[in-house]
Amino acid sequence: MTARILSGKEIAKDIRKDLKAEIEELKAKHGITPGLAVVLVGEDPASQVYVRSKVKTCERLGVNSIEHRFDKDYPESDLLALIDEMNGDDSIHGILVQLPLPKHIDEEKVLIRIRPDKDVDGFHPTNVGKMLVGKPDFLPCTPHGCQQILMRSGIETEGKEVVIVGRSNIVGKPLAAILVQKAKGANATVTICHTRTKNMAEHTRRADILIVAAGVPKAVTGDMVKEGVVVIDVGVNRIGKTESGKDKLCGDVDFDTVREKAAAITPVPGGVGPMTITMLMMNTVRAAKLRIKQ
Ligand code: NAP
Fold first, then answer.
1. Would you call 148 a catalytic residue per the annotation?
2. Radius of gyration over alpha carbons of the chain, in Å?
3. Tens of pLDDT along 232-287?
4. N or C: fewer beta carbons within 10 Å in the chain?
5. Between 3.40.50.1100, 2.40.10.120, 3.40.50.10860, 3.40.50.80, what CATH number should domain 33-115 receive?
């Protein structure tokens, strides 16, 4: 079997087309331009790439992007004061603080300071709670992107064995919470694996849908999956440079051996990555719309 490629890039394109129309309507009918503030502290190269790409996507869609960049020594107290200011600024609908933050800044303190109705990353405990009880305002972008890939590719999750490798607060845990809901695009039986899981391959081989977010290049190989599995590879690992000097990327799944057995698989790049940014735009538009209702 050679797998069908699930192109997050193409799915994201379709969603962005609809979002662009929604943004134009918001402007025309309500005089609202959705505004997203992105804060980057430090010089982490991957974060720089993500922020650049988020700003570019905002511009393409007609979202107003406000960028704040600070050096790695930026004090925590200044960052908290900036968040307070943005919380009170009506032109800003979404606030995103790029993670990871330098060690001297308490991430939890920062994330909790963002007003829940501007928390377009969906990391504030209020939004995590709403997600858990199945009444979300903002779903975290990467897990939501994974769910959208499955739904928009016509892959049923109901009653399926979904195995997730990774239990981070950003990907693994929220993804499990989303896919276990009594809802469309969910209703799955979910198992989460992590570094303390015994015999991980026993779990991954049971999976009808396998989602890998371990941060380890090629952690899942062909012998660890069953025939006909659907694989979503969240991993983004930089493994050198291409001839043109760009980062060479690979996922957490060994694409060549797994695609031989899988029914469908996401590529890296071009899979989950473009969906994550698109879900951020979706949340920003939602934040702007929620404001109208207030
Ligand atoms: P993370 O915070 O480092 O978490 C990794 C998780 O994987 C942890 O729960 C860890 O277990 C588990 N793990 C690590 N090695 C494992 C192994 N050999 N076997 C089983 N479990 C293992 O990473 P993250 O933020 O969730 O990100 C995961 C990957 O997704 C990274 O490659 C990241 O770059 C990528 N990512 C991509 C996007 C995107 O938009 N495409 C967005 C976010 C993240 P323990 O809890 O036991 O340590």
1. no
2. 19
3. 999 999 999 989 988 899 999 999 999 999 999 999 999 999 999 999 999 999 99
4. C
5. 3.40.50.10860
Catalytic residue, candidates 54, 160, 218, 261? 54
Beta strand extents in 137-234 (DSSP E only) = 161-165, 189-193, 209-212, 230-233
pLDDT (tens digit per residue) in 180-228: 999 999 999 999 999 999 999 999 999 999 999 999 999 999 999 999 9
Give catalytic status of residue 54 as yes or no: yes
- Choosing among 1.10.3720.10, 2.60.40.10, 3.40.50.720, 3.90.79.10, the CATH entry for 141-273 is 3.40.50.720
Where does residue 143 rank: exposed (0-12), middle (13-18), buried (19+ CB within 10 A)?
buried
Task: Indicate yes or no: pTM above 0.85.
Answer: yes
Ligand 1 atom index nearest CA of 275: 40
Sheet holding 35-41, edge to edge: 64-70, 35-41, 94-97
Q: One of 117, 118, 119, 121 is an active-site residue; which one?
A: 121
